[in-house]
Structures
1.
Amino acid sequence: MVEVVLDDVRKTFNDGQVVAVDDIDLDIAEGELIVLVGPSGCGKSTTLRCIAGLETPDGGTITFGGHDVTDLPPKDREISMVFQNYALYPSMTVYENMAFGLKMRDADSQRVDEQVRWAAGIMEIGDLLDRYPNQLSGGQQQRVALGRSIVRDPAAFLLDEPLSNLDAKLRSVMRTEIQELQQELDVATVFVTHDQEEAMSMGDRIAVMNAGRIEQVASPEEIYHDPTSLFVADFIGSPAINFLEMTVEGGQLRGEGLEIDLPSGVNEALSKELPGEEVVLGIRPEDLSLTDPGGGLTDLDVQVVEPMGDTKIVYVDFGDRRLNIVMPFDTTVEENETVGIDIAWPNVHFFSPEGPKVCTWGQTTAPSEPAGNRGTLADGSGREDSAAETDGGAASELAGSEASDDVTTDDETANDEPTDSGRAMDERGER
Amino acid sequence: MSHETDTDDLAANTAAGTGTGSAEANRAGLGTGSGRSWRFETARQGLSWETHYKPVLKYVALAILMIWMLFPVYYAFVNSLKTPEMIFTTSLGIPFLTFDPVAFSGRNAWRTMWSAFPFGRYLLATFVVSVGTAGLATVCAVFAAYSFARLEFPLKNSLFVLAVAGFAFPIVLLAIPIFVLLQRIGLLNTYMGMILAFTAFTLPYNIWLLRGFFEDLPENLEESARVDGCTQIGAFFRVILPLSRPAIVSVFIFAFLLAWHNYLMAFIMGSDALHTTLPVALLELRGTFFVRNFHYIMAGTFLTMAIPIVMYMYLQKYLVEGLGSSAGVKG
Amino acid sequence: MATIDRFDRGDRSLGDRILDEYGSLQGILFLLPSLLLLGFIVFYPMIFNGILLSFRQFTLDPSLVNPWVGLENYQYWLFGGGQALFLFSIKMTLLYELVVIPFDLMVALAAALVLNETLPARPLWRGLMLAGYAAPPVAAGLTFAVMEQAASYGVVYNFLNMFFSVPASGGITSNSPWAFWGVVFAKVWRDFGFMYVVFLAGVQSIPKELYEIAKVDGAGPVRRFRHITLPHLRTIIVTVVMIRTIFTIGKVEIPWAVTQGGPVNYTTFLGVAIFKQGFLNWSLGRAAALGMMFSLAIIPLIILWVRTETEDYD
């Protein structure tokens, strides 16, 4: 079995002035597709290049199937790689491009031919073999690049933003195709992207990177519903998560004229973990809901309504923050209308202003309803159900895109790392 | 690009009849009705240059430039076909192609120049030196440029600056020390000495051109090749070199022409008959019975000019790209 | 499926290991031929021979020792017999640069603008425009010298003589203010091609949309040239003027072919002065001393140029 393990990998540039990759630990099981995602300059590509051997780490080790390959040049690593610009050799035909890696390994011509035709068959580029790269469309070049990377039966499959040069439609087709290909090959695969949506839809697990460090490695569901830091919560999800800065005083959450009593479990966690009184609330757009004026937590004016087809995104200003709220498409709401908003409290995350998450309301010991919410409690509970419904809908949608055939790999991951993603999901399901 | 302008002119031409201009009209059409006729008026004025003067003027300008550029070449060619006697009867000095049966029956300079003067040997010497220089310079420059573009080694930037600066140093300032050096080691009046010297003069420019070309290639190509199983050097030979042919060809031509053009070093280093190149020979010919040898001199001059001009024409595209990028023109 | 020990490469070749361990060796190795050549042909002679020669009385007879003469060669140019020529030559060189470079610039810019227009068979015209640059300087200079003679075949002389009275004895090339212009004509004809190509590339790189917007805004051709073309070419013009200044200053071929530095020393620019002193009078020591002084003047220019050229890279 060839699994790829990164242990304390560190890479700096400019004589150590720029730290691109800062002590990363990551293991990729055989057959697993892991997505490295993060903003540009977060070190995701450098990490990939370290795995490929195109960069030599300053510290740490990289092992393939238990063998230390840290100092091996790329040619001895038996990996294959797809680049963002495909990097097809312009002076060679498609066939020669695909055969190149095998020829470099002294494969006899019959085997080269077999393998190239096999890979061309899979990628459906059999009729392009005599063309030159500049005679191909972007999508065809992409297929050739993928085909070239699979002819060699690689030990690991590395993809560096391979879809970002394609148009939106082709991109979603290639996404599925890469996933199918990866399952068929059953090799450890690292996919680098800056697109969180791509990451969510493709990865068995996602590693969110920021400033050279991995912020969180987990399944897409867990990353979305249980982010461990402000950064992850902010980076993943579209429309973006809402943040509210508030203070914790005397068991109450205060800010923007609101005073909300905290359940004891939450209060305990907050007072223990927070450095000061400030706390940042992270609320997913689908965890906010609209009520009649006066019927919610507070009353606000609707600024913009964006119909998205299946949903509507409603923007309201809360203090100097603009909140996005995802509502079902048939919600009737007009711009400039005054509405009440309500929050599905169990799904609210509390972050320290410095970044790490302190707790999620619903995951503290006793999930309980907010008590003493000024005069809004009576309606609150009812509306919360509907909020939970929308939430559930979103979750199932996500799970749907992942498809049921991911279940096996999910289990494997769970063995490696008994995270609480499963638990979190269970809780959600129960609710 | 040429196409766009073409259709633009066309649109402007057809539009002129109806009193609208393409872009202006579109914009004016969006305006309110009241201001419309006034806007069309200005639009027509703005276009008069485009529609009336420019199409004529550009041909006039082209004709003037071409006559000016090609006249000396034409002059050398036509005069080479005449006998000295005929040349001295040209009115105003503008030569016309007249066919003199005598000239074509055996006194034609193009037939007799080879025996009257050792033009064959001059030509051979010039070719040997130019081809040798071009070959050596291309090989050296390809490796050095790749090294500067992609490989890491100490003092890289300083060495590059030094190499490029060497090119700007006037050859005449180097002529004396090089002459003394080559004399001491016995390379004066040898092809080897001339080739080495010319190569050294042309190398910095060639390295600079090729480095620019290599740097513009996506680094992913080599990386991809390394992942596919090559060493860095292997990637260079198997992937980069094959696709650098246009750049390498233009560097070869540049080096060839530098050697072909050079008078100063060729005069200093190849002073014996065997190593006299065409430019050196031409200036020597001028000193000997100028009038009697007029047509030979013109024939030699035309020959010396025509060969590189033909090469330039043939490789125009590459050379324009190469020269253009050499002055730091980006994008 | 992959075997486990596919990464155990105990058998890596010696070459591979050397390359891995001495990675920077590749770079140096690739550079070596060029470095040797440049060092041997350019830098070594320039530094050692050039400097040492200028302190010697140098003759070519190997049986003679070449005695050290100290600063005598420098003294000759600065205070002695060569002073008049030295000062006059500096003056003429500066004048030459001041006339040739702007002349070059205007012709090249005009040619680039015309050949950027849509024309039938444009690639052919673009190529032919480089005829001068392709021609060897000596051939160009010689052709112009012939055309500038006061004779029936001297077309340039005949033409100029219609407007000015150029002395018939010696024509353009042997009479004092005319000879200078005789050299300039040949120089511009032969050299403007470089600037032309660079400008053509520069003009082509201007986005067409800018001109379209300007047309929509009602800007005429003159304004479009002043406000779009010229600003876009500004950095290119600066670079090219710098290159041409440096590359014109020491060139010998064209003045030599047209006038041989004459009449008397009228067109003996600095490069020509060194050439004449060294290879016609064979007093290499004096020529080297003049060359050293010339170098001192030109090196700051070269440094300036190299800096602007390489700053995009480093």
2.
Amino acid sequence: MYLLNKGSDPPVPVEAIIEPVAISDLKKLTKKDFYFVWKDFLETELWKLRTTESREILGVMSLTYYPLEYRIEINLIASRRDNTGSDKQYDRVAGCLIGWACRLAVKEYAHLAGISLKPKTRLVKHYQEKYGMLSGGQQLYLDGRPLYQLIETYIDHEP
Amino acid sequence: MNLDELTPEELADGFMIPARMTPEQKRRADQELAAIRQKRFTEQSEQDILYGRMLQLKIHIEDYIKQDTFDPNKDFSYFLRSYIDIQHKKKVDIASELDIHQTKLSQLLSGRREPSEDIFIRLEFHSNQFISARDWFRLSMKQQEHAIMTNASLRNKEKKHVKGHLNLNASIR
């Protein structure tokens, strides 16, 4: 799994890792740096993304499992404030985190695996275009081949 | 940068921000999605099902290799059995496809025989390079590593053969 360091010209791939958020990480997940009150999501499964070269967290994700529906819902993803917008250093943060959710779903539910999210209306089109999300009524989802494809693109693919 | 300063494209690049929904709206949205997905389940081809189940096995193997601990229930034979079960094939057919004697396959499946390099490579080609020979090899190594470190009788037996040893300063070890 890799991020693209846009600080270099041309951008260079940088190895990344996704790990469970530890209790000791919570003090780093401030609203100032990560936009939301992450302590409010403690009852969900929390994952963090960083490069293998640094301990600094670049992205966080909250998940909820729905085993009866063979799906995992992405409640929230946020990048660190200094890595957003057109000047951000690392690209692919959200893609890797979504790909990770897809991988977790397959690990748990095999061919029945799905992930879902309920994004703000104005963002729906962009998630569909960027990640191939499908319309599932009031929410977006991925399963089957498009889900496997996202794992290949963001998790398994080596630059 | 504040979220309202970011374009929708930039938000999709780094965030997933949920829409506000009441519990009732959420319940209906989940029901709607479940119905759509249920229909898709029935439309899955045998090939799609095989792919999903093989991917699940591959992920389990990858994660187990990375894990620090050894689980005696998850040896090479456990994963080989899973690989065969997923395909719904008879052992005799798998043995034929791998060009090994059926007895050898049975011994590998029961753990009475250690797999050799040719088996790792044949399994890789058999899976159409979906599960690599390296991963099969690493599974087997994990098992051997555990045996080397925990087989007390072997360690005691081999210790008697060692006639000398390094005299390292204990204070820096």
3.
Amino acid sequence: MYLDLLHALPEVLSFTNFAAVIIGVIAGIVVGAMPGLSATMAISVLVPFTFGLEPLVALGLMAGIYNGAMYGGAIPAVLLRIPGTPAAVATTFDGYPMAQKGEGGFALQVAVVSSSIGGVASAFALMLLAPPLSKVTLLFGPSEVFWVAVFGLASIIFLLGGSAIKGLISACFGVFVSVIGSDPIFGTDRFTFGQLELLDGINIVILLVGLYALPPVIDLLEVPLKTDGVSSSKLGTEPLWRALPRMTRFWKTWIRSSIIGIWIGILPGAGGSMAAFISYNEARRASKTPDTWGKGEPEGVAAAETANNADTASALIPALTLGIPGTAVAAVMLGGLLIHGLQPGPMLFRDNPDIVFGFMWQFLFGAILLVLVGGSLATNSFARLLNLPRPLLGSVIIVLMLIGVYSIHSRMFDVYLMLGFGAIGYVMDKLNFPLPPVVLGLILGGFAEENLRLALRIGRGDWTILFANVTSLVLVALTVAVVVGPMIKRHFDKKREAGGEV
Amino acid sequence: MKEILAALTITGFAAAPAFAEFPDKPIKIVVGYSAGGGTDVIARTVAQFLEKELGDGASVIVKNIPGAGGQIGFTEVAKAAPDGYTLGTFNLPAALALTKDRSADYDVNSFTYLANFVEDSNTVVVSASSEFKTLEELLALAKKNPGAVTFGLSSLGGNDHFAANMLADASKADFTLVPFKGAAMARTALLGGHVAAGTMALSQTTSFKDEIRVLAVLSDERSPFRPDVPTAKELGYDVEMSSLRGIVGPAGMDADLTGKLRDVLNVVNKNPDFQKAMADQGNPMAFIAGDAFADLARKQDGVAQAIWDKSPWK
């Protein structure tokens, strides 16, 4: 198989196939940077056009877009507190405070380097370990996946510091939104009020754009004409080679976050946002100065961005070997493969090694190109967006939001829904309710429900099926640790304080 | 049977179509699912060849209107003007099963049935490492210990569900049905040993020849893709179920127009390049045109109704 890998290389390096990756990366960064447009959308628009293209050109474009968009999402997250893609939510935690401190340029450089490192690690995992890692996916049946979702939900409650009650309320709102639509087993309508548009549930992009993009835009417009501008010196932009030495101290975070991202990627359905959240949480727990997190700690940006790119190629492991996409983007990519007669499964690796392994190389090159293309593109052009007059910037973003949301299903219903979430988001923002738990509540709530019910059906109503094997028990232990750990730590901290006073 | 039908449609083709000017604007094929899905790929392949066969600068575009399990797209076609410029993909039995378990703005009579292209028969499968070597062994346990055999499906109210239901009826066995989100998830759970057995369309098994053991195929004759696998009928259980994908228009289309479209679709089907493209995508072909397609839809509607009446799934 490793021979096949080398055999596929020359074809990838041919001019058109390589150019496809470069064009894909650039397009991906642009799409990712626009609030409302996501990689999923860009690739679904692309898929019909790939009919007439050579397979590797089509796949190269997709690999490039995927890698580019995962970094592109960080640009508005850092500069405007608007995550360009769902996976960039965790990037706003420290990226935006950095930008406010005048370190926006450095934040973007950290993001691009981390994204690239995560992407390269993920591509290597895909190239070298796809068959063994697909065995790991098989270990995760409904009850195990249920525990993964619970673990994810539990860790976010303690992720944000601040008021745990408010965090919990936000998470519950997210879980409530996940309940809307037809139920995952019987298809019974829930809270749809007879609207067919609500039957499939609420698309995460609609919620994200409404909740995250509208409130900052309103903020932006509340203080109009205050165009103090952001000069490049204020952005803190310096050449990448000079910024690099300041990043080397993140090496532990890079390794940890890459592993987390790859692991989340091979689990069906969880996706980049969960990878970024968990990785951010773990990095903060490991940090010696957890108090600086959320106030502009570059390592936080590194953790989030490494993980959300580390799940790109690894999400293709279950997609290519088992036909189950780890993320929404991987699902669309499977369609792109199908158009060229490439059906996922073990036979794919035997029948079309040149294309499959070529695709993997393209992922690797896409990740490397990210630094070269993204580094200059982001700091030299996108960062200057902030120099635009505020009314202009605000209206451009609103137009992009409307176009993006409309184009998901080509219907106005979604746009109204998005505006509704925008109003909710604005109120939540003003009342200091954290927004990230809403996003994760929506993603993981539905995921937890579906898998819990499947597990109970398999167990014929017997709850012990949830604890029936080692994988489940390990996940239960991790969940307990993530909930109880901070409590015990707080308890001991208090004791130590009390002891000191005596 | 299918050959006779094909021969009949060819005879129809010999008579010169009256609608010489059709089409004078783009024809739209509505797909009720997202771009890149199995049905979408079929629609795009048909569109590409249809455009060529219509000739004279004709243009055929595919429009994806995903949502509500395809229902939004099917409704769009049913309500369109019957002028031949709005066609749609039609998935049986899914499209008609939807009309049983929720309110729908269409039924089996809302369409003009033009041509079916794909028939993907259901199979009964276990993992290659399973203790069950034959259908008989599997059914024996399901009879002896009702509910002990967990049976993975892609969803309730689709061909997988109907197949499991019909097999249970025919054999007096009792399965615990586990509806996953899609066939790939059901297949993965089967491979991981999380469910004991399952049913899925034959095309879902082809890329997993060494990993999945196909115990029986639910069609009236053995599949050319897997001639080694017996049919359920041979084993004594008269169960047939499949997933069909074809092209329909709204009801009330003019007879000449209907004839012309059926003829052109027939020519598309005859094209070896088309056959090759469809085979590369793993689609088992079964070209059924005109009235036979309409009869098939009515029969499927009856099956869905009967199952819904007997054991409603929600």
